[in-house]
Amino acid sequence: MDNQTALLDVKRMGEADRLTVATGTPATELMENAGKAVAKAIEQRWSARPIIVLCGPGNNGGDGFVAARHLSETGWPVRIALFGPRDHLVGAARHHAELWRGTVEPLTPGVLEGAELVVDAIFGAGLSRALDGSSLETLAAAAHRKLPIVAIDVPSGLMGDTGEALGAVAVALTITFFRKKPGHLLLPGRLLCGEVVVADIGIPNSVLDQISPDTFENDPRLWIAALPQLHDDGNKYTRGHALISGGYPMTGAARMAARAAARAGAGLTTIAVAPIALPVYAAALTSIMVQPLATPEDFGRLLDDNRYTAFLIGPGAGTGEETRTRALAMLGTGRPTLLDADALTAFADDPPTLDRAITGPCVLTPHDGEFHRLFDPNGDKLTRTRVAARRSGAIIVLKGSDTVITSPDGRAVINSNAPPTLATAGSGDVLSGIVLGLLAQSMEPFLAAAAAVWLHGAAATEFGPGLIAEDLPELLPRVFRSLYGQK
Fold first, then answer.
1. DSSP per residue, 255-278
2. Any idea what DSSP says for residue 162?
């Protein structure tokens, strides 16, 4: 995976700091660099104005003292308010607090009087409890007054590993260091952080080799090298053949998935349907082939054809026994199989049967409701999605504004490019089709899922307001051209 897109949980970020100090960079220097970066980010976005820096008792507060000193030196009217006694500061934070020549006030809501900008340096991402007392009251008062707030690391009260908000308020700008944390991307954290700036404070990239990050922000750098490539000597068969089990009377979902699979590059795409549905599918599709299933045995004969390279079942399929039987048959081939929508709900009363059937490459794409029918809903989104992937042996794509993709081996990707316009009927069916199209071309399932989620978001962003799901497949060529630097 690409370490430039790594997300570091609180423990790994602490280890990155420790390793940097162990190799000769003083902790005071790292803190100086951090506070200086905060001051620079503020000066780039606001003109000088009265500012109150709210400092806590740990390293986050030390960063605040440094930022206050640099802003004061460039002419900003700066005041500092400290949570707790000054003599409780230790280490690098104490060192930098002693360099501050101004007064230090107790942290109460009253310190906001006259301030036009607030710096939240009370607690960083390592806080493991809810805000309370004067820190909670002061930040709530700042938000109530609509004062712009700048957070150091994360807004105080936001859990860095999970994005959970325990008293945090929305800020205009968050400056974090070295790498983002999962909480910057997971909801509701992402909605509270405002603009996120990642500052270089002197931690070498080489420490990533020692702390082995396993969580990443979705970005083409993770998977672009694995995207299927076109070759001059290729043909439609070498580009893979995707097979979809089509539903009836709900036919639109499978049709959108099929168009998405084709636009994602599958050389051939076939929908297998009941004879009664054949006229509907055939009239609506041209380059997509429609295969009627006259007898129950016909579906098995399709699966026996090794020219089909990936399967999808679920969109519009219904939740009955036929869907369940077909899903198990697809999984039984050992070829890449994607289960979505109704195919997931079909196993709601017996998840262990689904788990046992997953012996080959498999992707499951639930939304929250479908996830809760199959897996333990407890815990934060990243943790429960990881647990589900380990239990089932499948790649899990837990959909949402902060879609999480996890692998049974523990790798996870958090997506951040999905615009709110994707909250429209059928967009999930298109996503499953994009994944299918990449799987059909033999792309590794975890990377295929991550790429599909990003492509899905990029296509929606390309279209803008007024998006409906049918628009998405037709936007994929433009997104691919942009990825490859083509006009």
1. HHHHHHHHHTT-SEEEEEE-GGGH
2. T
Q: Name the 3-class secondary structure at 342.
A: helix
- Per the listing, tokens 């003083």 go with 26
pTM strictly above 0.90: yes
Say which DSSP state 420 is in: G
pLDDT score, position 291? 95
CB neighbourhood size of 219 (10 A) = 17
Beta pairing partners, 366: none
Indicate the average pLDDT of the chain. Answer: 96
Residue in the structure block whose two tokens are 């399967």: 311
Residue 264, exposed/middle/buried by CB under 10 A (0-12, 13-18, 19+)?
A: buried
Give the chain's radius of gyration (CA, Å). 26
Q: Are 450 and 426 in contact (CB under 8 A)?
A: no
Residue among 133, 101, 135, 104 at smallest CA distance from 120: 135
Last residue of a domain, one of 214, 230, 251: 214
Domain boundary among 214, 231, 251: 214
Which pair of structure tokens corresponds to residue 29? 């220097």
Query: Residues 312, 257: contact at Cβ < 8 Å?
Result: yes
Do 142 and 169 form a contact (C-beta atoms < 8 A)? yes
Q: Which residues contact 148 (CB under 8 A, 6 or more apart)?
A: 46, 116, 117, 118, 171, 172, 173
State how many domains the chain has: 2
**What are the phi and psi torsion angles at 444 (to 5°)?**
-55, 130
Query: 344-378 pLDDT, tens per residue?
Result: 999 999 999 999 999 999 999 999 999 999 999 99
Tokens read off for 279: 């006229």
CA dihedral 82→86→90→93, nearest 10 degrees, is 40
CB 278 within 8 A of CB 293: no
d(CA 430, CA 441): 17
34 is in which domain, residue-wise?
Answer: 3-214
pLDDT tens-place string over residues 72-108: 999 999 999 999 999 889 999 999 999 999 999 999 9
